[in-house]
Description:
Helix content: 25-40%
CATH topology of the largest domain: Rossmann fold
Strand order of the largest sheet: 1-2-10-7-8-9
Radius of gyration: 19 Å
Strand content: 15-25%
Distance between the termini: 56 Å
Mean pLDDT: 96
Structural class: alpha/beta
CATH architecture of the largest domain: 3-Layer(aba) Sandwich
Bound molecules: pyridoxal-5'-phosphate
Order of helices and strands: HEEHEHEHEHEHEHEHEHHEH
CATH class of the largest domain: Alpha Beta
Shape: globular
Number of helices: 11
Amino acid sequence: MTESSRDFLRKLQSFPRKALGFFPTPLVALPSWLPGKTPEIYVKRDDLTGLALGGNKTRKLEFLVGEAQRLGADTLITGGALQSNHCLQTAAAAARSGLSCHLALSGSQPPSLTGNALLDTLFGASLHYHGALRKGEGMEKMSQELTLQGKNPYVIPYGGSNAVGGLGFVAAGLELWEQLAGLPKKRNHVVIATSSSGTQAGLLAAQVLFDMPIEVRGIGIDKEDFQNDQLKQRITKLTRELTGLFTSREYDLPQINLYDGVLGEGYGVVGEPERNALSLAATRLGLLLDPVYTGRAFAGLAELLEQEVFSPEDRVIFWHTGGVPAVFHYGPSLLLAGTGP
Ligand SMILES: Cc1ncc(COP(=O)(O)O)c(C=O)c1O
């Protein structure tokens, strides 16, 4: 490790952090399910982070809750879609940390709660329904109201994707790099579901700060993210903010690789590619995926492999970012034709 890397590591360790998950998560080789010579494929099991049935948000929340506690907050506020994995993880993180939790969710109160929303309430979170707003747009108003009631709330942005949350994925990049050091040297490509941008930006920041030659490829899961190139811009901005927490040096950022081939009918709409991906991962690999993020990302990975984007000599790491409890919300729409009861 170079002197500057050691400095950056010390800096990373100096940010307030609340231990919420089990790290490192396993890096596991997958059997090849494709004919012919293909790259080695591994899965990074962030579905096993251990907080509320796992997921990538545990990593962000360790730093976000650390910062909330530093500021003396007694309440966490965040928001997202009704079945948001981020909201579930935040509810669990709040419970573990002795904080209250208020969630700004899309839609209206359903007749009965299922999947992630059901678990939100088990963790004691208060649910607020905000109609068409699915990215936590009402959070600031909720924060003002809670402040008037004498609370000290800490607002976590949509997806936990600000510089504080992104630190979780700077640490994750280092974790992966250490695991790869124990494997034969190859070109490494990470494939992840990407949306609010903290996961991809954190990994990119780790890449530039610690000089790790890992190529990161984000599979878009939300059509809206691709309007006016906004996802790319968000990732660039957040990566810069993250490196700026460590050094005033302006790095040339690596290329931001985004794939928009599996956006389907829009956010959270399950189609044939997600059904195929969930079925293939479950029946051939014994791996559960979720329909909104990792299922779509796995479908994207399958397309990239088909397009021979990676060389057979390379290693591809599919980052399983969690989301599995949502399976219990989507029910029979996940089954391939002819496989239901
Ligand atoms: C399961 C899962 N995977 C991936 C992502 C995308 O991560 P990010 O929002 O950091 O881009 C999310 C975001 O909510 C998620 O819930």
